[in-house]
Structure formats: structure tokens, C-alpha cells
Amino acid sequence: MLGAIAGDVVGSVHEYAGTKTKTFPLFVRHSDFTDDSVLTVAVADWILTKKDLIDTFHEYVRAYPGRGYGSMFGQWASTKSRNPYNSYGNGSAMRVSPVGFAFGTIEEVLDYAARSAAVTHDHSEAIRGAQATAAAIFYARTYHDKKKLHDFVTSQFGYDLTRRLDDIRPQYSFTETCYGTVPQALIAFLESTSYEDAIRNAISLGGDADTLACITGGVAEAYYGGVPSDIADRVMALLDDRILNVVEQFRRRFNLA
Asked: Number of H helices and number of E strands within the chain?
């Protein structure tokens, strides 16, 4: 899941910038982790501890306020609601990467991805986005075959992954929907040649950059066998002890690079 966190950090300064190029510094003064990383770590904590996921989300939002939470999720968390709100936003997909790394069968991955989404994002599109992202990570780490990944996601979830980034980029704009984010993020991975290239592809679309790069980064980490050390070291230096502890526990438990 470090790949998802790194994508979030790199993308954090591009979220509303409309970046349409792959040429930019990976880290700048204001690069930082956002709600994408906080909730990704919360899902990892849930998997590790088996605590109640709703309680875990509430706890993490209290511990990390002001990290850019979506308005509906922020309201849900601030009121300590226990009811989902039928969202089809991309929040379900940006936090799901630990599921793709943690389980040994695609059936478990799809089940836990749906569960991780449905406590807030119970709309069918949000569950589809979470499952597709987690499945892509599972296929990337299990088969290391982009065609197998492409074919499974296409057949199982109906996403069109045949488009090219160069064709998407000119008309693409900021969106927080799952269907406007997940296939584009997966295409950014499919066209990549390395972890870093995948992140640059995602951000270059000029949309919800931190979330696009978070989704792409999780899949790229699984496929390319980890996050390059120069990127990982910069990202880890931005994380506090609580988040670092969960990240390290997760990596040890599931033998991640």
C-alpha cells in the first residue's frame, strides 16, 4: 500500500492544478499526505486488527483532521454516523489498496473490497470501483501480466480500458466519481513502464490528481515489485509514527517489499 500513499503525496500539490504534462518535480515544499493516505492506512489497520471499520474511520479522522476529506465523508465522520450515504465517489477506490495486497484469492479480495466501500460508499458504482482497484492489485502482484489484469477488469466490471491517455487527456477534467477516475487510473498503469512513470501518467491527466495517483500507485507497486527507494524514503519521512507503524506492520505481515 506504500505505492498508493506515495502516489497521494506526489499528487497532493496537483489536485486542482490541471497538470497536463508528465514533466514535473516529484516532490516540492508542500508535498504531503492527504485523506487518501489516512483512509488507506485506516483500511490497513482494519485488516490487521479486525476492529470495526466504521469506528476505525472515525478514529482516524479525529486523529488527522483537515486532510482534505470530501464533504459527504467529512459530515459522516464528524457526526459519527454509522449509516452509508449512497455515494458513488472515488473515495471507495482510493482507500482500498490494502485489500488487494492482503488476501490470497480473488473471491476474498472482491468481498473485502465491497465491505471496505459499503460502510460509506454503498452505491453500486462505488463498490464496482473499489472492487476493480483491489482486483487490479491482486492480478498485478499474483500474475505480473498486464493482459490478464486488463481482461479480468474489463470482463468483470465492464470498464473500457482500450483508450489511450493521449486521447483522454485533452478533454479530461476534475471529477470525484468512481467511473470518472478508476478506469483512467488503471489505463495510466497499463501504459506505464515503471512505478514512477505510472504516477506521472496519472497526474498528467489533470484531474483529481492525488486520488488518480493513489489508485495507480497501488497497482504499480504490486506490478513493479515495490516503490523505488528514493521515492519511498521521501514519502516515509513525511509520515508520523502512528501511520509508519501501521505501514511497517502491514508490510511485514504480507511480505511486501
From this structure: 15, 0
pLDDT of residue 66: 95
Question: For residue 116, what is the enclosing H or E element?
Answer: helix 106-118
Question: Do 235 and 27 contact (CB within 8 A), yes or no?
Answer: no
Q: How many domains does the chain have?
A: 1
- pLDDT higher than threshold 90 for residue 29: yes
Domain of 152: which CATH number? 1.10.4080.10
Q: What values do phi and psi take at 189, rounded to 5?
A: -70, -50
pLDDT attached to residue 224: 98
The residues, ordered by sequence, that sit 6+ positions from 227 with a Cβ below 8 Å of its Cβ are 2, 3, 6, 195, 217, 221, 235, 257
Model pTM? 0.98
Contact 113, 95 (CB under 8 A): no
What is residue 32's three-state secondary structure? coil
Indicate the residue type of 228.
P
Helices (H), 120-169: 124-143, 146-157, 165-168
d(CA 13, CA 10): 7
Instruction: Tell me which residue has cell 506521472.
Output: 200
Domain coverage including residue 234:
2-253
